[in-house]
Design brief:
The structure holds two protein chains of two kinds. By secondary structure, chain A is an all-alpha fold. Chain A has a domain of about 240 residues. Chain A has 13 helices and four strands. Chain A has a two-stranded antiparallel ribbon. In chain A, helix 3 crosses helix 9. Chain A is globular and about 75 Å long. By secondary structure, chain B is an alpha/beta fold. Chain B has a domain of about 160 residues: Rossmann fold (3-Layer(aba) Sandwich), CATH 3.40.50. Helix content of chain B is about 40%, strand content about 25%. A six-stranded mixed β-sheet of chain B has the order 6-7-8-3-9-10, sandwiched between helices. A four-stranded antiparallel β-sheet of chain B has the order 2-1-4-5, with helices on one face. In chain B, helix 3 runs parallel beside helix 6 and helix 5 packs across helix 6. Chain B is globular. The chains are: A mainly alpha, B alpha/beta.
Amino acid sequence: MKPVFMTYTKKDLINLAVCMVLSVLVIPTFITTEYWYTSILIPWLCLALATIGQQIVMGYTGQLALGAAGFMAAGAFAMFNLILRVPDLGFVGSLIVSGLIAAAFGILFGLPSLKVRGIYLMVATLASQFFIIWMIDKFGWFKNYDSSGIITAQDIVILGKPFTTPLAMYFVCLAVTTVLTLLAMNMARGSTGRNWMAVRDMDIAAESMGVSLLRTKVQAFAISAFYCGVAGALFAFCYLKSLEPVAFDIKLSFKILFMCILGGLGTINGAFIGAAFILLFPVLLNAIGNNVFHGAIDATIISSIEQVIFGGLMIIFMIYEPLGMAKLWENLKVSIKSKLSSAGTKSLKSSAQKSE
Amino acid sequence: MAYERKFKIGKPILEVNNISLSFGGVKAITDTSFNVLEHEVRAIIGPNGAGKSSMLNCINGIYKPQQGTVSFRGQQIPNITPNIMAQMGLSRTFQNLALFKRMSVLDNILVGRKLHTKTNFLEVALQLPKVKKEEKLNRERSEEIISFLEIEDIKDTPVGKLPYGLQKKVELGRALATDSTIILLDEPMAGMNVEEKRDMCRFILKVNDELGTTMVLIEHDMGVVMDISDRVVVLDYGKVIGDGTPDEVRSNQKVIDAYLGVEH
């Protein structure tokens, strides 16, 4: 039997091509309403990126961390200050450096994972959430001493060209997300990902194989925070277009956690599925409320129903399919394939019988 | 059985000197010393609760003994941790299976190649040529081990879904993948049927014979132990009560008493 040496199989390349064609050609051609870009697609890409960060630390390395929004805030405000104070760095340079700054926070707040685990670690990582937001609020320097508390994000300029239309910003988000997703997949499928999963599944055995728990956990936290930092910067600059610490509160951390769990722990595509579901579901409910019940149901009730359904789904998924929607998607593909192939053999048989 | 061994039994490779380990007030191991010679198959036997697994955990650095030292190749090792021992060339399996349950058989074995993986996460993320080269080598070695253990047909199955006997095999494979000079096996045949046991014995002897890997194993099945090991150390209540070739141990009165009980 020939071992698979390449990281990418033919199927992966086809998937990648389909995704690229969809996102680069199909979506810009057929979707022309700004609403879809500014309210759905851009936040989807940003939050999916943050969810990949959460996946790395929680889904792959098995460290129950809750503080993604804190790292996003770190990335967003680092971005603001870098563009303000070090304009020479450029947009892409600032984006990378803000990711690295968030990664530094990730290392700092990942250190407790060496001593505590499970729910206790979750509480410990909450510190990052509150500390980073507090720090930004406390020291005016981070907000350039703006008295209003809400600062406007600078315009995105890459290589002298402005990227200010929703479509242009969508492409910026898409490019960054695509590159970082591919890098994450490489890591997850390579030796790095195997070390993460080994620590997740059985840390004592991993250590006996020469996997350093300290290095692996801290590395996962750093990479995770890098992804969240970059996602936060994009979130602020392309979606919110303003910076206020409140936007990165614990609710956002929970949202990312839900995306991670519903999408499927330990999967990269699950991050995109989970993010899409959580973003689109309220839109769908609203549409149902408006079009089916013609506004007979109050908007506040609809948003409450949304919470109830999310909660219910979380419980159902945790019990019946811990691997989330990514796994459901896999199962669906497999069942369709087997149905198609059985239909294929049937038609072959019947045509064979006819010819007889 | 006067066959010629490819790897002659040599000098002591691992020495355990006066180890004492206690949990709170309970003494698990008391002042125990023995050694393991290079290329031999060494068994540690004893009744339940004799401190056999604790002994392995001390050698491997999972437990820190209150007294005593462990020397590897004549060199005393301070601050033993599982990681340091792995780097020195000592690998192990666990009594209650410590596999990476959600990973495939191949991935489990590939984790064993960790110490032969020098590229860092950035290089892996960028898939540099040297990463691909290294991954290829590691995969080839893992495939070799998989076909050696005759588990090719399950290599893509998540380990958690496999029956117990196969999981034990995978764990042996993972230990082998490290290319360690010495492997500690904690009850490699527990819970197996006769056929699986025979298979496992065959693999242990084959590894020892073909690769010269020193094997230290804990086992309950006396017949198996006496058949495959070169020397046996017997523990009872955390103390060594017998040490020698299987024949010597079998005729040792203390060992007989420990296993069969003494008349009072």
